[in-house]
Structure formats: structure tokens, C-alpha cells
Design brief:
The protein is α+β, with helices and mostly antiparallel strands. It is built from nine helices and 18 strands. The chain has two domains: 104 residues, Sufe protein. Chain: A (Alpha-Beta Complex); 234 residues, Hypothetical protein, similar to alpha- acetolactate decarboxylase, domain 2 (60s Ribosomal Protein L30, Chain: A, 2-Layer Sandwich). Helix 7 packs parallel to helix 9.
Amino acid sequence: MRRLMCVLVMMCVLTVSFCAMAEQSATVTVKGIGENVTVTLAMEDGKIKSVEATSDNTEADERGVESLKLVADAMVEKNSVNVDAISGATGTSNAVIAAATEAWLQIQAEAARGEGWMEAALDGDTLYQVALLQSLVQGYYDGIVTVGELKRHGDTGIGTFEGVNGEMIVLDGTVYQAVADGSIAIPADEETVPFSNVTFFDVDETLSLSGIADMAALQEAMNGAVNALGANCFYMVKIDGTFDSIKVRSEYKQEKPYRALDVALAEDQTEFDYTDIRGTIVGLYCPDYMGGLNTPGWHFHFINEDRTRGGHVLQVSVREAEAAFDMTDGFEMALSRESAFQEMELAKDVNEAIHRAETATTGKND
């Protein structure tokens, strides 16, 4: 099932809108309900300087004309295109918001090209994210893109499947599904994905690991490499080697009405302990400022050498391994236009729920 998406592209790790720059403007026209709405948005020094909105509806009533100005003024006051629609003029308001958003993105992309940031991303150094960890944690498990579409955006990464049907490991161009019994399946291209991060992997740095006692020690070692390279970029990592022990989890597919992820995992999470096992950990590092879109720090998934067992990593001890880092400075995100997604309170603090979902163990073994 293919769902409508809106795609947000941010380059140079989301800092474009804060970079000092001369005044720039963009004009975009979108089709509203019975009218075409044109918005000219101007920015200066990273802030919205002015927004002008007009409609070609010559029969618009006073309320409709006023709504154009109210929405435009709200954007300047808030310094954001993410404002509320005007009651009684929702169609016109949404058209203004859509046009202003496109204009804002055009300005950011032009600024990025001027600084040389776009070229690197076009070469493949882009992290592609499906939705938000925050939407997944709150219970949005409907697929947004297909597995086939996801593979067009990267050959390495992590994620999950519609209904949180197991853990995703993307490695060397193959999408693997660690299902609830811990075994590995190969999902069809038609399967859908509610949350994922992938990139086209290339090695920028390597690190030899040995005698790593636990997850905290692994993260400390990985953070040392990231801090040396630059902690404000994204990193995808592949850790190939032998693990003295590793604890992973998966989960049973959820059915509607969906529960919040930490609640679902408390009942339907399965855990598996392996010792003296070879395989690969695929990890994602997000910088601190990504707290509203993902979880800062590290997120690891594992698959064994013969591709038969795997899951989300809860604990690990590394005997000998080689970590390869892909430093990534571009970011692209796909979002659902469905009402269930659009009505979510994605700005609310769900850090505790994320912590429980990402790190908690239930002691259950399948």
C-alpha cells in the first residue's frame, strides 16, 4: 500500500536556517480550494523577514482576505512556517502554509548550494529517515514507504516494519527482518515501513575494538571516534566481529488500535541471549540537536554472520571487531500526510517513553 508523503530535506545537519546570509526570497503558488494562493517569503540572517500572501479568488469574502494576512503575520512573528490554520478559512490557510513551506525549503536549498553542502549529499552522503522515532513511540505504526522505495535511498541502516513487525537490519543492500522468534526473514518489496534510517554506506574512518565489556563501554569507544571526526554530523557504523555475548530483542506485530511503543513492548517484546557469536552490528548516531526527530546518540541492530538471527541490541560484549564509520552531512525525511499522523502531538516530551522502548528488558524469552 503506497501512502502519500511529504518530504522534508535539510542539509548541513539542519543548520542552514541559522546561518547568516543576505536577504533571499522565493515565490510559490499552490492550488487551494477554488483558488490559487501565491506566497512570497523573504529571509534575512536566517530569520523570516516578511511573508506576502495573495489569492486569485476575486470573490473572496472579507474573512478569506483577512486570513491570508493573519497566517502570513503569524509566520513572521513565530519565525516559522509551522503555524495554525485560521478557523473558518482552513482551505485558504493551508494553501498559504503549503506555499510558504515550499518557499522556505527553496531558500534553504539555495543557501546550501551556495555553501557547497548540497553536492556532498547528492553524492550519497544523505541520511534518509522515514517519519520520527517520536511518532513511532506514540503508536504510529502505519507504513509510509515501501521496502522497495526504502532501498532506493540507502544500502545500510535500521528500522522496523508496519505494525512494528520485528526489527529491520539493512546491510549491503539487503533488507532483513528479525521477527518475534529471533529468526531472519527477507521482506517483500511491497512491505511497508513506519520508521527507518538508511544511507548509502562508504567508509570514512575505521576503529579496532577489543575487550569491550558492555554497551556503555562500546558507546564510549564509539563516541571517542565521533568526537574526533565531528559530533554534529550523522554516522552510520558497521561493526563486524566476534561478540562474547549479545542480548537482542524483537517483538510481535501489533494490531489496531495501536498502543504506545513502550506499552506494547512491555507485553510483546521477546529477548535472546547469544554467546561466542560472529556477526555485524549496524548502528546509527544522531547528534544532540536531533532530540525532536530521533534519539540523540547511538541505536544498534545486530545480525549474525549466517543471517539467521538478529534484533535490536540491548547489551553487548565485544571480543574483537572492526568498526567502519560513514560520516554523513545530509538529512532527508519522509512524513505521512494521513490525518492520524498529522493530528499527533509530535513536539511533546516522550523521552522517558523512548528510553523505556529502546533500553528496557522484560526478561521474556521466546
